[in-house]
């Protein structure tokens, strides 16, 4: 009968940094090629890294290690760590933070995912960084406390959980060399027991400094500097450096919640040798055999289905034969045929990563079953004669092999710790049913959003993503969905719209994107602008209905407020681009159509999370603004615009002419020409509109040639002029039945030019007067600017005329609707994407729906180099690094004021220099423990007790200096 897959666990995310490998793909290629990735240092490199000369010159010193480049680099800003905290934190813990972030992004879930309960199981090699600091310098008690929290294993899991917002169990797992594979077993159990819905397993093995080792006869370290597992010349292991992280999810949940799995964990087991070994450091055949049998039992598979074993493989004379015997016995008893199972040992490539060795082996095994290729054991030449090969299921590949074993592809992974803690895991290739196929490619525009902590990281991220999208391999819909749903939004933001991956890649490459920095404080208020008649075109709502979430539903709700016959006509003209433009331009249809689009747009923005601070309408747009502001109910507003449109349609024909000059100059020009025209709109200091009979407008426009810039507006009525007077009685009758409500949202009136605040009551006759009087848009906009000087203006109906006017008035502006009849929803998505880049709370889950999570390039960390001065060996060469000061440095002979003392203490505790008065202790990485130390140091230096609550409330350097100065002045200080 088929296996029960309810207990299977998917590996959904990976992040790893290995020696001489720029990426996981680069590392895999090196493994398949059989490359040895360790480094042999020369004498100068050893001395520069801090190795004592006597040790470097010792004939027994082996200058070899799996070296990890840039191991001291760390992006402290992203993780809200002060420079001093970064310096005092073990490089292992720093890189684990970065790798955890990357692995979660790779899984398509991202850090700070409040909807997912993520556990973390972390392992690390003992901190030689801590040992160097304590041995090499006199470290004061405050610093010792910080160092312990930054280096001891007790704090690494909880720090990652704190920095990444993970709310599941967070614990350290330390069982020497088997630590991280034991952690995998515990993570699987936590998932199956319901302790979490996602688990992150992470481990590091990085020494400080990265260098060689002293060979000891009969020890486990190689005298030759080469690790040769299962080879006749095997003489021990070589140390290596690296950090590895995997993300786990129950397979049943992973298909929908994560990117496609790298592989599936079928079962695992952990045991201890107990006393069944020759000595504490010696391995046990019985313990290793038992753990392999237990793992196969837990996985509910027999050995006949396993084609690969990633061995512990230390390359020691004692360890290799014992491991070979134990694995052979367990697999043969489980049904494996002789020569069926290829053996691998990644330590031959990269060295022994200590606590991270088990995870490195797991990642290699996952790659084997996913790719169907078995790499050779690097450096293998002749098999160790001590290995019993007769009828053994095992064989050692000396070259890369294509998988020809059982299907589906299954592999086993072993890790054994000094002292006898053994772990074994069975993995399987991801089945086709676990890989969600992409939907059919479409030409629908998609919004792609990227963010980072700093501009340089954003540029790197954009370059990475562009290279991926340019291949055309991932569907743009999937990339859009993954970036929106599986990444944390950071301050530096970028948005781009494309119809395909290659098109989006070209925009990224050429800089045709929207890029902004989110403000650190309160966002600028949003003011919605509603234009009047003249901006309409057939099908003007189609792109909005296709691209703006919530618009279609709001459009339906608005159309329901009209009489059925009118609603049907409106729906056709709004969505059908083939609708007659001449018919739409008729006032009786144009005005209800523009009202509907403006109202639906405003409601859609609210649906996405954008709440306006005020509204402002131009002519007809004032009625839409009043409805959005809560003054008019939707059915009343709908009836009003229908009446207004019909009444104005019945008025005499006329024309309107926009002038590139102010109202005073326009009055003078009208007088000079003797034209029978009126000023009907004052838009800003250099723009107004005149209206009158068509012939009069035409004659005036011809007379103005070479005097003033002019533009004939697309209207056959002279709105807001005396030619509209006959429309006033029908309007007056209509407004008598209006239900007027107090202003709920600040409403700028183009009739009075004033901003009406919440609670203001308005006379319904206003809507009659505003039809007959000039539009004082300039005054109304000025009132908005005075109240909201940094506002963002968003124009929510077709056109960008009001946006341009707002920009002239000093406001940033964004037109939301497409301005062209042939435009698709790309412009709409681009506008909303711009709002997101500016920090507005756009609901990206609505904006970027219709895709699935995939693996995409992850955060491109490239932080500065951080090394504490206390951890720098005496006599070592200087490094380009940010090295901590160990004590405050006063300027000789200067007066030590509270201000200078506090600045020195801040520099010592936080590591920041050049501090301003408004520098914030907590924003610079401080915490309650550090501010307690700060208060204690001030008391010690100045002899005055500073209440901790005052320092906590003070926060900034300037305010804290004032607090201390006032305290000194209020007490008798001995002279």
How would you summarize the topology of this molecule?
Blueprint: E1 9-17, H1 24-32, E2 39-40, H2 43-49, H3 53-56, E3 61-62, E4 64-65, E5 73-74, H4 83-88, H5 91-106, E6 118-124, H6 128-136, H7 141-151, H8 156-164, E7 170-172, H9 179-193, E8 198-205, E9 213-214, E10 242-250, H10 251-257, E11 263-272, H11 285-299, E12 308-310, H12 319-333, E13 341-344, H13 347-350, H14 357-371, E14 373-374, E15 394-395, E16 401-402, E17 410-416, E18 421-428, E19 446-452, H15 455-470, H16 476-485, E20 492-498, H17 501-510, E21 514-517, E22 526-530, H18 542-547, H19 551-559, H20 564-575, H21 581-585, H22 587-608, E23 614-617, H23 621-628, H24 634-649, E24 655-659, H25 663-673, E25 678-684, E26 687-692, H26 694-703, E27 710-712, H27 728-735, E28 747-748, E29 755-756, H28 766-772, H29 777-787, E30 792-795, H30 801-808, E31 812-815, H31 826-837, H32 844-847, E32 864-867, E33 882-883, H33 898-910, H34 928-942, H35 948-954, H36 957-970
Parallel strand pairs: 6-7, 6-8, 12-13, 12-17, 13-15, 22-23, 22-30, 23-28, 30-31, 32-33
Antiparallel strand pairs: 1-10, 1-11, 2-4, 3-9, 5-32, 8-10, 11-18, 14-16, 17-18, 19-20, 20-21, 24-26, 24-27, 25-26, 28-29
